[in-house]
Structure formats: structure tokens, C-alpha cells
């Protein structure tokens, strides 16, 4: 009898496959409000559609409408579909299983998790590291665990949403300084001298603008005012700096940055996962108090396997990381010559600044029709009046891919009045 009951529960009662809407006045009121909000988003031209890909991640993708060249992935090093990375994921899956069905401190820590944490710390030349399900979780977990009402955190106004949300969760005194404005940061540091501990938090590279934080100056001010420095390296790890270690290596301040949060979901294989690396006592504290770590399942073995192999490839040779500069320069210089304004400098994130949200949306759609996959960004992802199409260069793009992208931008820009 129990088997029949189980089958009935899994299959559901007759007609259970049809979607069911909640009934009642409150549910109807909620539906009307949500539909009104959604219509406002469509009307503002900021609706975000999800296009379905039927191939592996890479410079060339298959969509329902056919093949396209992809310029909107965080696959900076092209490792998402690297054969050695895929093989490492399969081997980890076969040896360690699909998942742990547990958080780390109960029965969710395998040898590969500890090996990857050690490898991350070695790569960044830090004492220890801790894995999270994502860097969003790492950012959500660090400030609350580290800072108290006696402390202060000073955050760049254009920091990633995950840093902003993480800071909101903590009880520290909060200061926001103007984007990469060292004069304003110094003023805020002077004001924060009354607090026990001061932590300056910044993205290493800003994902919407493609600009790089002035870490030398930030570290100088931190030293002057007895503060610590935290950087989010999601858009830097793997390809900035001589060995791809990130902005602190690029700018020569590896010994002055205390805490690094970054991701395994972009340059390092592109699957998922994030981490914090820094002083061992901090990592030990996070294992005891960081809520996203304590209450989230362990990273699946396949994800750990591919990230570990990606780090192996980076530490064996810096050739992949170094291949980015020439490709990035090719795109930026050709687009500037065509008459476009490209935000940032020397970063593979190349935002084509357009200002108008509708213009960014229709141009991105027209680019797709020409076989170039890019995405328009507008409020609330970026400030109002600063809509753009973000282009991301990958080590696996060919010169022909880049030239075709520039040509399509020029045609579409002229069609929609973005160019003369």
C-alpha cells in the first residue's frame, strides 16, 4: 500500500499536472500589483529576456535562431569548455558523486574541497581560503561575521550589489565614498577614526564600467588612517596582473590588501562557487559564524574539480592570462575610432556608452539579428541615464570575431542614430 501511496504522491492526484493559482482576495490583489509592475518594466524598455542556448559556453553559440558570436559572457579565459577542465569535472563526479546533501560542518567536506581551498590560498599568496556557493554568498557572509557596531566600513558607491547587500546585513557604521574618489575616501576615513576598526571595501574591477580601482592610493590611505582593505576580484581573478592573480598583483599591492573575495564562476571554469581568502584567523572565524557558509550545501564535486583544474592551468603558465591584453586593445581602439565612447581602460569589460535605455535595448536586439550576442544594461543595474551595451572580450575570441563585432556595431549605431 505504501508504494501505491508514494506513486500517487509523486504523480499527484488526477489533474495535478495543471498549474494552480492561489485563490482569495489577497492573492488576486498581489497578482494585479505584480502584473502592473511588470508592465511598467516593459514600458520603460528595461525588460530582461533570457535567450536559450543549445550549445556549450564559448565564443560561438547556438541559439534557437542559429549560430552567433558571443560577446557577453564572463568566460574571460575560455575555460568554460576547455577539454581538460571538462575532464576534471567528469572525474570528480565519478569519484566523489553528484553532491554532499549536507553543509560543510556536518558531513559535507571532502578532500577535494580542502585541496581547492589550499590551492586558492596558494594562488593568491594568502594564508587560507574558504569556499562558498557563490561570491554573492561570500560577500553576504563576511561583513556581518567580521564587523560589529564598534567598527566602520567604507564602500565605493558603485560597488557590486552583493557587496552592498552584504554591508547592509552587518551592524557596522556605514560610509559611502564617491566612485574611485580618493579625496572623498580620505574625508570619510578621517570621520571614521572614532571607530574601533575601519574596513575599506571596493571592487577590484567594476563590472559595469570596466574601470579598475586605484588600489595603490586606497592602500596608502588605509595605511595612513590605520584601516584594512577588502577587494572583490570577480572581474579580475585569472587575467589581471602578470600571473592573473588580480588587481592587487597588477598594481603591486598584494602585501597591503587584507581580504580578497572572488568567484569560480567566471574566468576559473565558469561553473559556480566563490571564496574568501586572507588571514587564517579570519577564515577560521568565517567557518564558525558566516551564515551563508554554515547554512548552504557544499559545492558539488564536479564544480570543485573543474575550478581546481582551471587553477592548475593558470599556475602552470601565464600565457592564457596574458593573451587578453592585445584582444582587448584591438576592440577598444577600433570602437573608439568608429566614434563610440568606451568606458573603463585596459579591461576586457568594454561598456559602449549610449545613455538611453531604449536605445541600448533596441541596438542590442539589432546586434543579435546580425549574429553578435551582446546585452544592453540600464536602470536599476546601472544609474539612470547611463545605459550601455556591455561587451566582454575573451581569450578565445579571434581577431575576425572582434572585427565582425566592431563592424556590426558601426552599422547598428548609424542605423539608430548613435553614430553620425
TrEMBL record:
PROSITE patterns, A to Z: AA_TRANSFER_CLASS_2 (PS00599)
Cofactor: pyridoxal 5'-phosphate
Domain Aminotransferase class I/classII large: residue ranges: 68-409
UniProt keywords, alphabetically: Acyltransferase, Pyridoxal phosphate, Transferase, Transit peptide
GO molecular function, one term: pyridoxal phosphate binding
Reaction equations catalysed: glycine + acetyl-CoA = (2S)-2-amino-3-oxobutanoate + CoA
GO terms for cellular component: cytosol; mitochondrial matrix
Protein name: 2-amino-3-ketobutyrate coenzyme A ligase, mitochondrial
Amino acid at each position: 500500500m505504501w508504494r501505491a501511496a508514494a506513486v500517487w504522491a509523486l504523480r499527484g492526484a488526477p489533474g495535478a499536472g495543471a498549474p494552480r493559482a492561489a485563490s482569495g482576495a489577497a492573492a488576486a490583489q498581489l497578482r494585479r500589483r505584480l502584473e502592473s509592475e511588470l508592465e511598467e518594466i516593459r514600458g520603460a524598455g528595461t525588460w530582461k529576456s533570457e535567450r536559450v542556448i543549445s550549445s556549450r559556453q564559448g565564443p560561438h553559440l547556438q541559439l534557437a535562431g542559429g549560430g552567433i558570436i558571443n560577446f557577453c559572457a564572463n568566460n574571460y579565459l575560455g575555460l568554460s569548455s576547455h577539454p581538460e577542465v571538462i575532464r576534471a569535472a567528469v572525474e570528480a563526479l565519478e569519484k566523489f558523486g553528484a553532491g554532499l546533501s549536507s553543509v560543510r560542518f556536518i558531513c559535507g567536506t571532502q578532500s577535494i574541497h580542502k585541496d581547492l581551498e589550499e590551492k586558492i590560498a596558494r594562488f593568491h599568496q594568502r594564508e587560507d581560503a574558504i569556499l562558498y556557493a557563490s561570491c554573492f554568498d561570500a560577500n553576504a557572509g563576511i561583513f556581518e561575521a567580521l564587523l560589529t557596531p564598534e567598527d566602520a566600513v567604507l564602500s565605493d558607491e558603485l560597488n557590486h550589489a552583493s557587496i552592498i547587500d552584504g554591508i547592509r546585513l552587518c551592524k557596522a557604521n556605514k560610509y559611502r565614498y564617491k566612485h574611485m574618489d580618493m579625496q572623498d575616501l580620505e574625508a570619510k576615513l578621517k570621520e571614521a577614526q572614532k571607530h574601533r576598526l575601519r574596513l575599506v571595501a571596493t571592487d577590484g574591477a567594476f563590472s559595469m564600467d570596466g574601470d579598475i580601482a586605484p588600489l595603490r592610493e586606497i592602500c596608502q590611505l588605509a595605511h595612513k588612517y590605520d584601516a584594512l582593505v577588502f577587494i572583490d576580484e570577480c572581474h579580475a581573478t585569472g587575467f589581471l596582473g602578470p600571473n592573473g592573480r588580480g588587481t592587487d598583483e597588477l598594481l603591486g599591492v598584494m602585501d597591503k590588501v587584507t581580504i580578497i573575495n572572488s568567484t569560480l564562476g567566471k574566468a576559473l571554469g565558469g561553473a559556480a562557487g566563490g571564496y574568501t581568502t586572507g588571514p587564517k584567523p579570519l577564515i577560521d572565524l568565517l567557518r564558525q559564524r558566516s551564515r551563508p557558509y554554515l547554512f548552504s550545501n557544499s559545492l558539488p564535486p564536479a564544480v570543485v574539480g573543474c575550478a581546481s583544474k582551471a587553477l592548475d592551468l593558470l599556475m602552470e603558465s601565464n600565457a592564457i592570462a596574458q593573451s587578453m591584453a592585445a584582444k582587448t586593445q584591438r576592440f577598444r581602439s577600433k570602437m573608439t575610432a568608429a566614434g563610440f565612447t568606451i568606458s573603463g581602460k585596459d579591461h576586457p569589460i568594454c561598456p559602449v556608452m549610449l545613455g538611453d535605455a531604449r536605445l541600448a535595448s533596441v541596438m542590442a536586439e539589432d546586434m543579435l539579428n546580425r549574429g553578435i550576442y551582446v546585452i544592453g544594461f540600464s536602470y536599476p543595474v546601472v544609474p539612470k541615464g547611463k545605459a550601455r551595451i556591455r561587451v566582454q572580450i575573451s581569450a578565445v575570441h579571434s581577431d575576425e570575431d572582434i572585427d565582425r563585432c566592431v563592424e556590426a556595431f558601426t552599422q547598428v549605431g548609424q542605423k539608430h542614430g548613435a553614430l553620425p
